[in-house]
Amino acid sequence: FTDRKGKTPRRPGQRKQCNIEKDPVGVYCRIRPLGTEDEECCIEMISSSTIQLHAPDGLKANRNGEYKETQYSFKKVFGVNTTQIELFEDVGKLLIEDLIQCKNGLLFTYGVTGSGKTYTMTGSPGEGGLLPRSLDMLFNSIGPFQTKRFVFKPDDKNGMEIQSQVDALLERQKRDSQQKADPEIADMISSDDACKVENVDEDSCYSVFVSYIEIYNNYIYDLLEDAPFDPIRPKWLSGGTPVRNNEFIPPQSKILREDQNHNMYVAGCTEIEVKSTEEAFEVFWKGQKKRRIANTQLNRESSRSHSVFTLKLVQAPLDADGDHILQDKNQVNVSQLCLVDLAGSERTNRTRAEGSRLREAGNINQSLMTLRTCMEVLRENQMCGTNKMVPYRDSKVTHLFKNYFDGEGKVRMVVCVNPKADDYEETIQVMRFAEMTQEVEVPRPVDRPICGVAAGRRHRNQAFRDELSPIPPCELVDPADDQMLPRLIEVLQRRHHTRQMIIEEFNKTANTVNSMLQQFDSQLSSKGNFLHDQQSKLSEKDKVIVSQKTEIERLEKKSKTLEYKIDILQKTTDMYEQDKRTLQHELETRDHRLHRELSDRRRIEQHMQGMVTDTRLKWEKECTAPAVHPIHRRSHSAGGEKWVDHKPSSNLDVDTVMQPIIPNAIKVSTPNEKALSKCHKYVLRHQELASDGEIETKLIKGNVFKTRGGGQAVQFTDIETLRQECPTAPSRKRRSGSAERPAHVKNKVIVKTMLILSCHINV
Ligand code: ADP
Ligand code: MG
């Protein structure tokens, strides 16, 4: 339980979590014999590690015969005939060996009330349980190497101090004067059963301290405390009733503290140094007695309390002479083994507890419930790699042993079962807890470091002392004493011889040590050189690393700038892309429009072409037709209109051949091109059938001129109207009446024609 500083359990935190070796909690099962042989048995041991549970007959009937046989496996199962020594050899021995090797252990018994927990832990006279046997084995092993009393002294902070020889002596004298034997102690173990650890380090000194506490209703009581009654500050019961004078003084509850290594201990707990099994057991008995009295006086249910008996082994190396203990607190090692007899695991309703006891009972079960929860969480954390908080602090029992699971140690549990039918249901619960606990792993305690002083010094020095035996007392009165002198000579010769031998041995050893030292020296210097080499290499590598780092930084910076640039370029590209799209779109629209305009223009052109062709054809026809009947002429003048006879004007070189015309149709004719280029005059002829049946011909005259674009245009200047009788129409009486119509009625049509012609020539 201790590190080199003499403190109890080592903290795991300092070591790397991943390298920790772990062992599962060792769970054993002990079946006690039935009270009477004719009782119904519901547990069967089917192998050295497995038991089978059968539901009792009554329960089967309740469940309509429906039941299951369940099997549970353990590290080992101890049947009803197992003796106490057999159990100890399997369960307890290793823990004592570990204790001497400075490793901590925790051993507890678990089970229903009456299942044999106390029998297993304590036993009875002649049939001592794990506790007396552990003590016996410990003292058998370290007996001759124990320190004198009071060399070690508890420091109230869960550590141990070394007292000066004088102080230790004074305390010893004080104690001896007070010592009185307790006749009550029975002999628990027969001497045949003596166990012993063989490889005890003989160059160390040992001392054993024991403490004994009881946890009842989640209060901790020191069972070894000699509590003087304080009349000013009366003690209080856990229930709250003050105690009057002359009455039994109940122990005051203690608190748990954490030492500087974060290990839990009961603050101010009495630790008694013991030098033999008998003495240790006497102390245990004293505590038992106190416990018994307290239980009776305070009307407690003893099966509801947990008891913890702690064996603390302190060891420190001998100094180089092998005579005294090395006065160095850092070399003191403390390890401990806790032997725990837990309260009955049955549920409250089974114990007919009433009133104030019910609460107590509930609390006890609460402690065991917490123990169960802790195991569950631990198992889950270990199996699933989770890091759930383990509720150690929820009860004193789990809080006290927190470090066995968080720190390191060896944990073993003996599950006690009574195979009787009444216990069946509770036993199943016990089995479930036991099975689960087996899956919890506890960090394995590490080996303690070797102390730097040469081994074997205790015996060597002893031998040396024996060899240098004193010269026997003799009185020489006569120089010729032939009796005394030869004896003296012999003794002196022997001494001389021994001295010579020792000197030789010393020289030999010195030589060996010297050569070893030289070897070490050369090794050291080569190691030093190697180290130097490595260091210079390392510094070179360091330099390289530094330069690489700066290079990396530079490149990183560069890459950052480039990234920035890329970013900007990307943005620009995006912008351009956007522009491009807009322009493309615009282009498309324009293209589209252009296309439309072009097609419009082509249509117009075609239309115009058609019209021109039509007109030309008509003109050609008209110009080539022979002259016909005389025609009337109507001429415009500034004053108004009058009808005149008219012939085609001579300066108009136009063939005005009239042909019978489709009534009401507009006929337009143009002069042929030759004529047009010659005379620069332009005549449009328009014929229609008037309502009175005459054919009305209009000659629209104009001048042709060249346009700036290189084409030709016509400007109309005069309209001549000719009327003639239609050869096909019936004769009419009224000729001129209807001709009175004003010429401008038809002007619209003519103007239109004019415009179109003008256009055509321009193109
Ligand atoms: P617990 O402590 O679990 O309540 P005990 O240890 O007090 O139970 O045992 C109840 C009784 O049974 C005691 O009288 C004890 O002597 C007896 N007993 C228990 N286990 C055994 C066993 N393995 N062999 C013989 N007797 C036993
Ligand atoms: Mg008991």
TrEMBL record:
Component of the centralspindlin complex that serves as a microtubule-dependent and Rho-mediated signaling required for the myosin contractile ring formation during the cell cycle cytokinesis. Essential for cytokinesis in Rho-mediated signaling. Required for the localization of ECT2 to the central spindle. Plus-end-directed motor enzyme that moves antiparallel microtubules in vitro. Belongs to the TRAFAC class myosin-kinesin ATPase superfamily. Kinesin family. CDD domains: KISc_KIF23_like. This is Kinesin-like protein. GO terms for biological process: cell division; microtubule-based movement; mitotic spindle midzone assembly. SUPFAM superfamilies: P-loop containing nucleoside triphosphate hydrolases (SSF52540). It comes from the Eukaryota. GO terms for cellular component: Flemming body; kinesin complex; microtubule; nucleus; spindle. ATP binds at residues 111-118. Residues 538-572 form a coiled coil. Keywords: ATP-binding, Cell cycle, Cell division, Coiled coil, Cytoplasm, Cytoskeleton, Isopeptide bond, Microtubule, Mitosis, Motor protein, Nucleotide-binding, Nucleus, Phosphoprotein, Ubl conjugation. GO terms for molecular function: ATP binding; ATP hydrolysis activity; microtubule binding; microtubule motor activity. Pfam families: Kinesin (PF00225), MKLP1_Arf_bdg (PF16540). Heterotetramer of two molecules each of RACGAP1 and KIF23. Found in the centralspindlin complex. Interacts with RACGAP1; the interaction is direct. Interacts with ECT2 and PRC1. Interacts with ANXA11 during cytokinesis. Interacts with BIRC6/bruce and USP8/UBPY. Interacts with ARF6, forming heterodimers and heterotetramers. The lineage of its organism: Eukaryota, Metazoa, Chordata, Craniata, Vertebrata. SMART domains: KISc.
